[in-house]
């Protein structure tokens, strides 16, 4: 991603986003859409394959960026719907950008080296060429609003481009690739990185209206849903500005984060991690949640889940040896813990992710 201009305080708020090639637009409500979609199929597959191969190499060639003023953005909603499921999506990449609002239930989003628990009132966001996976809770499932969009394509063509042909499955290894960032330069404040996960319950009605308008296609609906999406983005930017941790706050827990990253199999405890940072456990836990969004125990549990998944996928020994490696007393306790966390037993997970 390119560097922002040196004078970041001049002019209104500016947003830096990826701009990628997308097949010609079509209106989802027109019968001719299918014919045009078929004509664009070969180009769509080729362009998506090129992006996917570049991501696999850790290189994103052909993906540029440009400065866009927030007040001048004309986002185009490509697809919007309501989903209720106990299933999973991915690992995969998408051709545009996606933002999700969780209505009820829960799921786990894996994006790069991070995992996020998606719960009611949460928003998650990621862009094109950002490998991700969403696994819903098998006990309660998840219900959410989903919006696929392009950042400023509405300025060129207001008609939606359905993302379906550009969805591509990818290997679990690609989940280690960091997602592409989107940044906002807010006037009189500075640069803000759009969060991939944020609690924003006040955005629910905006999501619901976008989905309803998209389905009904009343006159002027494309302009209306574009303006609603801009309102959602403003809410998320404000959340990021008001809730993000400062660099000094992150430095307070940096020794603990480094220790967990370098020794994920260590039996860390909150007092032990607090001592590495030189703080009382209670104060450390408060600072840790402020920076990461999770309690130390929840964060450690998520790291252990990710380590278990990696060993199961890579075929690193038997399930019993993996359980022992992770510090479980027996395979039965490990299996119960893993199924509670992912909805699958270790054997089922390994079966769905063959070598």
Automatic annotation (TrEMBL):
CDD domains: cupin_XRE_C. Keywords: DNA-binding, Transcription, Transcription regulation. GO terms for molecular function: DNA-binding transcription factor activity; sequence-specific DNA binding. InterPro entries: Cupin_2, Homeodomain-like_sf, HTH-like, HTH_AraC, HTH_AraC-typ_CS, RmlC-like_jellyroll, Tscrpt_reg_AraC-type_HTH. Pfam families: Cupin_2, HTH_18. Residues 251-352 form the HTH araC/xylS-type domain. This is AraC family transcriptional regulator. It comes from Paenibacillus cremeus.
């Amino acid at each position: 991603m390119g560097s922002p201009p040196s004078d970041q305080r001049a002019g209104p708020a500016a947003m830096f986003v990826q701009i990628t090639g997308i097949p010609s637009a079509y209106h989802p409500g027109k019968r001719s859409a299918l014919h045009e979609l078929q004509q664009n199929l070969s180009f769509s597959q080729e362009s998506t394959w090129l992006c996917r191969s570049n991501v696999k190499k850790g290189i994103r060639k052909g993906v540029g960026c440009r400065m866009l003023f927030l007040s001048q953005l004309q986002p185009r909603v490509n697809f919007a719907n309501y989903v209720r499921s106990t299933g999973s999506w991915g690992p995969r990449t998408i051709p545009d950008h996606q933002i999700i609002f969780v209505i009820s239930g829960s799921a786990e989003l894996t994006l790069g080296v991070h995992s996020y628990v998606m719960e009611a009132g949460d928003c998650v966001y990621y862009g094109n060429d950002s490998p991700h996976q969403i696994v819903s809770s098998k006990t309660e499932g998840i219900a959410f609003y989903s919006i696929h969009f392009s950042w400023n394509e509405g300025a060129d063509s207001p008609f939606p481009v359905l993302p379906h042909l550009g969805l591509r499955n990818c290997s679990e290894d690609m989940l280690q690739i960091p997602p592409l960032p989107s940044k906002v330069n807010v006037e009189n404040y500075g640069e803000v990185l759009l969060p991939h996960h944020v609690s924003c319950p006040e955005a629910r009605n905006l999501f619901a209206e976008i989905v309803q308008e998209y389905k009904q296609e009343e006159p002027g609906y494309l302009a209306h849903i574009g303006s609603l999406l801009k309102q959602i983005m403003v809410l998320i930017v404000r959340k990021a500005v008001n809730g993000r941790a400062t660099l000094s706050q992150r430095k307070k827990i940096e020794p603990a984060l480094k220790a967990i990253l370098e020794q994920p199999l260590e039996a860390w405890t909150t007092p032990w991690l607090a001592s590495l940072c030189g703080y009382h456990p209670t104060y450390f836990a408060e600072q840790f949640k402020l920076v990461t969004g999770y309690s130390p125990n929840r964060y450690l549990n998520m790291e252990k889940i990710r380590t278990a998944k990696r060993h199961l996928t890579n075929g690193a020994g038997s399930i019993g040896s993996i359980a022992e490696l992770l510090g479980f007393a027996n395979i039965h306790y490990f299996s119960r813990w893993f199924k509670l966390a992912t909805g699958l037993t270790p054997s089922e997970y390994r079966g769905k992710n063959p070598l």
